[in-house]
Amino acid sequence: MLKLPLICANGIGDSFLILGRVPIGILGKLGFRFNIFYTTPEHPARKILEPFFRGIRYCDYIEREPLAREKWIFSKLLSLSMRTRKIWCPPFDLSAKSKPKGSGKKILLHTHLDGHHGWKGATAKMWPIENWVELSRKLHDDGWEVSILEWDEDAIRKLQLECPFLKDGRRGALVDTVKSFAEYDFLFSIDSWSKYVAIWFGLKQVVAAADVRNGYCGNETTTAEKLARWWFHGVIENSKVKVLGLEKTELGDYVYTLSRIADMDIDLVWEKIIKFNR
Q1: CA-CA-CA-CA torsion sign (223, 22, 41, 67)
Q2: Distance (Å, whole) CA 4 – CA 19
Q3: Model confidence, pTM
Q4: Cβ atoms of 160 and 129 closer than 8 Å
Q5: Would you list the domain boundaries of the chain?
Q6: Domain at 98-276, CATH homologous superfamily
Q7: HSE, side-chain direction, 13 A CA sphere, residue 91
Q8: Residues with Cβ < 8 Å from 174, sequence gap 6 or more?
Q9: HSE on the CB side for 99, CA within 13 Å?
Q10: Distances (CA, A) of 81 to 42, 256, 261
Q11: Sheet of 106-110, strand order
Q12: Helical residues (DSSP H) of 82-141, grouped into ranges
């Protein structure tokens, strides 16, 4: 049987982007099967991603480099996917998807204070910790149940010391963290993999995206247009998503409106969340 290749690489976000481009579940029910490849085995996200890959129905995780023919087929799959503006949820076990009834004000903050997989040089994703503290307090005072998703232990301790009401959004394995999104009503994040998962679970969200050419190694030539058409494909067009820092002009192209994430105004974020949740 010919298996269609899905070639993932780099971090969780880049891999989730690929998995969400192809309707694996729909095609799987029609008899198609897939091989998932991961081409950057030295990346620190590998150990986190491999168990997730192995748990996706209709897919096998293949521990080798894809062949030239497989790369060609994959390029055609991506070309087809660019014609839609949809993100598909991979078919893993979503038995936890039924959300417990509550106030409708359960929010997850993906704080990204570790930079990028522990690399604190990724300042394009690091909003100052004191801003997270103030935003968390404002949300809490307004009646929100606030959780944080953060991998830096020092940052978690500092946040919870300042805001004892904060709940830890981490779970043991990536798939469990992903499933936990069913518990929330809203997500606020600095551009990351969580924006795709929020769409899988139908959450409202506000995503901040600063100019990645400033403080994000390897993206010195990434224009706003490229960011919108690639990383935000299926996101920026989604009615349940508001993006801060990336806007469409009257001419139809995209521009950065936030030079550095540190310049993002706390009150602006607060207002966006409150207004969008009404």
Answers
A1: negative
A2: 12
A3: 0.93
A4: no
A5: 4-81, 98-276
A6: Glycogen Phosphorylase B; (3.40.50.2000)
A7: 14
A8: 12, 48, 49, 51, 52
A9: 15
A10: 28, 25, 30
A11: 167-168, 145-149, 106-110, 186-190, 204-208, 241-244
A12: 129-141
Planar angle of CA 54, 231, 115, nearest 5 degrees: 80
**What's the confidence (pLDDT) of residue 10?**
92
pLDDT in the model for residue 243: 96
Work out whether strand 254-256 and strand 246-248 pair parallel, antiparallel, or are unpaired: antiparallel
**CA 168 to each of CA 41, 47, 68, 165, 246: distance values in angstroms, whole numbers, following the listed order:** 29, 21, 43, 10, 29
83 CB-side CA count, 13 A: 4
List, for the chain, all residue ranges whose pLDDT scores fall below the cut of 50.
Answer: 96
Distances (CA, A) of 274 to 133, 165, 167, 255: 17, 19, 20, 25
- One-letter identity of residue 64: R
Q: C-alpha angle with apex 53: 7 to 196, nearest 5 degrees?
A: 80
Residue 187, beta-bridge partner list:
108, 205
String of DSSP letters for 24-44? HHHHHHTT--EEEEES-TTST
Question: What are the structure tokens assigned to 21, written together?
Answer: 């481009």
- Cite the beta strand spans of the chain per DSSP E: 4-8, 34-38, 59-61, 106-110, 145-149, 167-168, 186-190, 204-208, 241-244, 246-248, 254-256
CA separation for the pair 130, 142 (Å, rounded): 19
Q: Is residue 71 within 8 Å of 147, Cβ to Cβ?
A: no
- For 150, the token pair is 């953060």
